[in-house]
Predict the 3D structure of the following.
Amino acid sequence: MVKSILLVGVGGQGTILASKLLTTGLMEAGYDVKMSEIHGMSQRGGSVSSQVRYGENVESPVIEVGGADILVSFEKMEALRWLEYLKKDGKVVVNDFQINSMPILSGKVEYPTGIIEKLSEKVKTIAVDAHKYAAEIGNSKVTNVILLGTIIKAMKLEKINWEKIIRDNVKPKFVDLNLKAIEVGMNLV
């Protein structure tokens, strides 16, 4: 059975790095894994998405509308933007964090209110303040790894040796911080 994970966010949030760590862990665990990423205007704070599909035999890296088992959104509005890709019985993990896009900053549109409530009315939603927890453990840049931890727990991937994945793919001086971040994320779900 193929499982599909959709990670979405805004450029600079570490969405792609989280998906690469996830993909590496899944491959080392013996799964057939396909990943695709869309950067949009990521360098300028635009939408970023990464699709990770894994199982015994994965034919395509692309998640169709209504095909994601889990949607992990690094920014609230992105969860709404990508919600149609979630299966009817899928889960949303949403970082309770707001990044204002250029249209919002320029005053052309307003940031929508009640996003988490709207999501909760439609699908099983787990809201986390990953940014706050990242700051508490010492570095807001590990928000992405905290969100990776939520995926690991929600998708029951705890048996994979995530410590090895972190040690092999993160600069040595950031290993302990990232290991703590994964643990924090797993405890949020």
